[in-house]
Amino acid sequence: MTANGPVQPGDLFFFYGLLKQGAAGMPDHIDFEANGAFLSPAFIRGDLYRVAYYPGVVEGRGLTQGLLYRLDDISILPLLDEFEDVDHARPDRSLYHRVRRPVLDADGAPTGELAWVYWYVRSVDGCENIADGNWPLDGL
């Protein structure tokens, strides 16, 4: 799993937390509508945790629910990476790495698509597991 690799216009992103359309805490300084399009609900394989006021997904057998977003203008990528605390100069200090993962349907079957996911890279010891894999839009 290559972290923080090059992104091309038209690449898919899988947003499962604060970047989901309509989420409390969604950054208002990033113009999602002008730079791409929110597409459809989707899933990835991984376990979802409440890390603080934000979630993190890590390796696991669960299904994490989210929303696909097509990034048309990659000029906002630095803003996305910064929001998710991706430190390209010092990856060991990052909270997340941006990685590509297979997109799944609601039954856990691959759709054949790959999407960039902000993958939590710190320990989740002591964090609450979100068993249904769905971070609520209100963040509670």
Question: What are the SSEs and their pairings?
Answer:
Layout: E1 11-15, H1 32-35, E2 36-50, E3 55-71, H2 77-83, E4 96-104, E5 110-120, E6 128-129
Parallel strand pairs: 1-5
Antiparallel strand pairs: 1-3, 2-3, 2-6, 4-5
Summarize the model shown:
The chain has 140 residues and is mainly beta. It contains two helices and six strands. It has one domain (11-129): Roll (Hypothetical upf0131 protein ytfp), CATH 3.10.490.
Q: How would you describe the overall organization of this protein?
A:
The chain has a single domain, classed as Hypothetical upf0131 protein ytfp (Roll), CATH 3.10.490.10. The protein has two helices and six strands; from the N terminus they run βαββαβββ. It has helices at residues 32-35, 77-83; strands at 11-15, 36-50, 55-71, 96-104, 110-120, 128-129. Strands 4-5-1-3-2-6 form a six-stranded mixed beta sheet. The longest helix has 7 residues, at 77-83. The protein is globular. The mean pLDDT is 94.
Total of domains: 1
- The dominant shape is globular
Q: How much strand? A: 35-45%
The average pLDDT score comes to 94
- What is the terminal-to-terminal distance? 31 Å
Question: What brief labels describe this structure?
Answer:
6-stranded mixed beta sheet, globular, 140 residues, mainly beta, Hypothetical upf0131 protein ytfp
